[in-house]
Design a protein that fits this description.
The chain has 90 residues and is of the alpha+beta class. Helices cover 42% and strands 21% of the residues. This is DUF4258 domain-containing protein.
């Protein structure tokens, strides 16, 4: 998600993490303004869905073997796994 300079400043001032914006866009809903922009927000039910999603993935980051995925140049995810050895870089 690309943020304008103004949005970055406001997010920083308000203690908003970029992940929070992504979650609102994924689980929330948007409403069009008369100017053509879209306002994204999450109601109580949608905020509950966000919290459930965070609980569901929490275990992925608590395990000792780090989770990884491989992304192709076109953005497609090729594979997902847990790293047990060092990553080989070329």
């Amino acid at each position: 998600m690309r943020l304008t300079k103004h949005a970055k400043t406001r997010a920083r001032e308000r203690g908003c993490q970029p992940l929070s914006l992504e979650l609102i866009k994924r689980f929330g809903h948007g409403a069009r303004t008369t100017a053509g922009a879209k306002v994204w927000l999450a109601n109580k039910r949608e905020r509950g869905m966000i919290l459930e999603a965070l609980k569901a993935v929490q275990h992925d980051f608590e395990k000792p073997d780090p989770l990884y995925f491989v992304e192709a140049p076109d953005g497609a995810v090729v594979t997902v796994g847990r790293r047990t050895k060092a990553v080989r870089r070329r």
